[in-house]
Amino acid sequence: MVYRTILSGSGVKSFSQNDSGYKVKITNGASLSFDTEYSWTFIDGNGVRLPEVIVYNQLPPALFNYLQGIEQQADVYAMSRDKTYYKLTMHDTIIIYEISTGKISYPDGKTLDT
Domain with 91 in it: what CATH number? Predict the structure, then answer.
């Protein structure tokens, strides 16, 4: 699970619950949000890149392969998801992956098929 990799060697700084799910802040580390079914919805490195193993384990293979192809798999600072898309916050851009079509889009309107 995602939290085991992020928690390795760290503890939980804070935890909260609301009607939409749970929020966890790791001591000196990432922030995570989970829905009511305990699936992650948001992982934020808080200014630090996310471990590549998290990116590999939590993204669809086509999206991870795309990141590898542009040599950006180690440059993800935050990622979020819902039932329709994954959104990756990179150093200087945002990448959106549409689950149903496999399309990748950028803020400038550029789109790619995976």
Answer: 3.40.1420.30
